[in-house]
């Protein structure tokens, strides 16, 4: 059911900062745990897929995405461009 009302109460569509941090950490933990099932052994992934394993890539990018979001929230994200000298 799509609710386009201005009230966000109870819809779960908008997370506050604390909720997002908890959500992001959960996603990172889940992705990291699942990544343990994927390792390069003898030219194939331990899950049986050929390398590069698409599932492992997705999990890794998910973890990276949420780590960056958390770093941005915490204000610890590195600058987009390093100063050139
Ligand atoms: Zn795999």
What features would you describe in this structure?
The chain has 85 residues and is mainly alpha-helical. The chain contains two helices and two strands; from the N terminus they run αββα. The protein has helices at 17-35, 54-74; strands at residues 40-41, 44-45. A hairpin with a 2-residue loop joins strand 1 (40-41) and strand 2 (44-45). The longest helix is centred in the C-terminal third of the chain and has 21 residues, at 54-74. The protein is flat and about 40 Å long. Zinc ion binds next to helix 2.
Keywords:
two-stranded antiparallel ribbon, binds zinc ion, 85 residues, mainly alpha
Ends apart, CA distance between termini:
55 Å
Low-confidence runs (pLDDT<50, min 5 residues)? 3-8
Overall average residue pLDDT: 85
Helix content: 40-55%
The coarse silhouette is flat
Order of helices and strands: HEEH
> How many beta-strand segments?
2
Main β sheet profile: 2 strands, antiparallel
The Cα radius of gyration reads 18 Å
Bound heterogens, unique: zinc ion
Number of H/I helices: 2
The structural class is mainly alpha
Strand percentage lies at under 5%
Arrangement of strands in the largest sheet? 1-2
Give me a quick take on this structure.
This protein has helices at 17-35, 54-74, and strands at 40-41, 44-45. The protein has 85 residues and is mainly alpha-helical.
Q: How do the strands and helices of this protein lay out in sequence?
A:
Elements: H1 17-35, E1 40-41, E2 44-45, H2 54-74
Antiparallel strand pairs: 1-2
Helix pairs in contact: 1-2
The structure holds zinc ion (ZN).
Zinc ion (ZN) binds at residues 38, 45, 47, 49, 53, 55-56.
């Amino acid at each position: 059911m799509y609710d386009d009302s201005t009230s966000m109460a109870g819809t779960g569509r908008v997370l506050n900062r604390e909720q997002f941090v908890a959500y992001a950490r959960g996603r990172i933990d889940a992705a990291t745990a699942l990544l343990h099932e994927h390792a390069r052994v003898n030219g194939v992934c331990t899950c049986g897929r050929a390398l590069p394993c698409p599932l492992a890539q997705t999990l890794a990018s998910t973890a990276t995405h949420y780590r960056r979001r958390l770093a941005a929230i915490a204000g610890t994200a590195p600058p987009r461009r390093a100063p050139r000298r």
